[in-house]
Amino acid sequence: MSEEKTLVVPPMLVAELDELTSHYPDKRAALIPMLHRFQEELGGWISPEIMEWCAEYLDMEPVEVYGVASFYPMFHMRPRGEHVVSVCHNVSCDLRGAREILARVCEVTGCRPGGTSQDGRFTVLGVECQGACTAAPMLDLDGVYHENLELDDVDRILGGVE
Amino acid sequence: MIPQVPTYLLDRCGLEDSHTLDVYRANGGYAALAKVLGGMDPAEVIEELKDSGLRGRGGAGFPTGLKWSFMPDPQKDRRARYLAVNADESEPGTCKDRVLMEKDPHGLIEGILIACYAMRVPVAYVYVRGEFRHPYNRVAAAIDEARKAGLVGENVLGKGFDCEIWMHKGAGAYICGEETGLMESLEGKRGHPRPKPPFPAGHGLWGMPTTVNNVETLFNVPFIVDRGASWYRTMGTDASPGNLLVGISGHVERPGVYEIPLGTAANRILEDWAGGVLNNHKLQAWFPGGSSTGLLPASLIGLAMDHDSLKAAGSMLGTGAMIMLDETACVVRAMEVISRFYDHESCGQCSQCREGTQWLHQIFRRMENGRGRMEDIDLLESLASGMAPAKTICALADAAAIPTHAVVKHFREELEAHVKAGCCPRKTARTPETVEAGA
Question: Which residues 6+ apart lie within 8 Å of B139 measured at CB?
Answer without folding.
Answer: B87, B101, B105, B108, B109, B126, B128, B167
